[in-house]
């Protein structure tokens, strides 16, 4: 029974780590005033009938702090990539010169920065909900084990371990949010 409970705790910790990784991935797509190729990770382009990430049909690189260059491997993809960027409604205008697509990111206004912080806050809340759900699931398993004969003192100890994990990952999400917020508000 001890091994089963430890397995539940390990699974919960993996779920909490997954929530952190998911948050990092989603937060990297939110523009913080600096041009990063990760901004286009979620943008898909129609590549011979299947929806494919831009990074799989072109080189995406930052030329400088505010300019991204997208160089497709096939010239026929220029129009499709340009359309996909427009449809993604990212607030940028791609400039197609027949060879590459250049994207110059406008300076963020104070209003836009606040909107981006709201988006990050939503991601933070989603990550925390995932962490709390993992905690709830393992706590239920521990309580079920105590009902089935697992020592109550040992169950309380395990619940304390789970709560410490929850606190650790929740505070990590808060730190990640603070660093993202600082990056967004930096002029």
Termini separation comes to 55 Å
Q: Going across the major beta sheet, what is the strand order?
A: 3-4-6-5
User: Which oligomeric state applies?
Assistant: single chain
Q: Rough shape?
A: elongated
Q: Note the run of SSEs as H and E.
A: HEEEEHEEHH
Helicity, as a percent range: 55-70%
Number of domains: 2
* Largest β-sheet summary: 4 strands, antiparallel
Query: Average pLDDT value?
Result: 89
The amount of beta strand, in percent, is 5-15%
Number of helices in the DSSP assignment: 4
Which residues form runs of ≥5 with pLDDT under 50? none
C-alpha Rg (nearest Å): 22 Å
Number of strands: 6
Keywords:
187 residues; alpha+beta; Topoisomerase I, Chain A, domain 4; Gyrase A, domain 2; 4-stranded antiparallel sheet; two-stranded antiparallel sheet; 6 strands; RRF_sf; ribosomal large subunit binding; protein biosynthesis; Ribosome_recyc_fac
How are the elements arranged and paired?
Blueprint: H1 2-28, E1 44-47, E2 50-53, E3 58-64, E4 67-72, H2 77-87, E5 94-96, E6 101-104, H3 110-147, H4 152-185
Antiparallel strand pairs: 1-2, 3-4, 4-6, 5-6
Give an overview in words.
GO terms for molecular function: ribosomal large subunit binding. Belongs to the RRF family. This is Ribosome-recycling factor. Its main location: cytoplasm. The protein folds into two domains: 2-28 and 109-185, Ribosome-recycling factor (Topoisomerase I, Chain A, domain 4, Orthogonal Bundle), CATH 1.10.132.20; 37-104, Gyrase A, domain 2. The chain has helices at residues 2-28, 77-87, 110-147, 152-185, and strands at residues 44-47, 50-53, 58-64, 67-72, 94-96, 101-104. The strands form two sheets. Strands 3-4-6-5 form a four-stranded antiparallel β-sheet, with helices on one face. Strands 1-2 form a two-stranded antiparallel ribbon. The protein is of the alpha+beta class and 187 residues long. Helix content is 59%, strand content 15%.
């Amino acid at each position: 029974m001890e091994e089963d409970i430890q397995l539940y705790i390990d699974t919960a910790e993996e779920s909490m780590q997954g929530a952190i990784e998911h948050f990092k991935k989603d937060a990297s797509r939110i523009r913080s005033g600096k041009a990063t190729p990760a901004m286009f990770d979620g943008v898909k382009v129609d590549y011979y009938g299947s929806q494919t990430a831009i990074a799989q049909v072109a080189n995406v690189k930052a030329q400088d702090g505010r300019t991204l260059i997208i160089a497709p491997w096939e010239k026929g993809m220029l129009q499709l990539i340009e359309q996909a960027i427009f449809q993604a409604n990212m607030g940028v205008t791609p400039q197609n010169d027949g060879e590459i697509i250049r994207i110059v990111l406008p300076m963020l206004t104070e209003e836009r920065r606040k909107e981006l912080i709201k988006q990050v806050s939503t991601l933070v809340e989603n990550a925390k909900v995932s962490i709390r759900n993992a905690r709830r699931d393992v706590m239920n398993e521990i309580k079920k084990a105590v009902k089935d004969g697992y020592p109550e003192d040992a169950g309380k100890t395990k619940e304390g371990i789970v709560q410490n994990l929850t606190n650790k990952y929740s505070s990590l999400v808060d730190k990640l949010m603070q660093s993202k917020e600082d990056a967004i508000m930096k002029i």
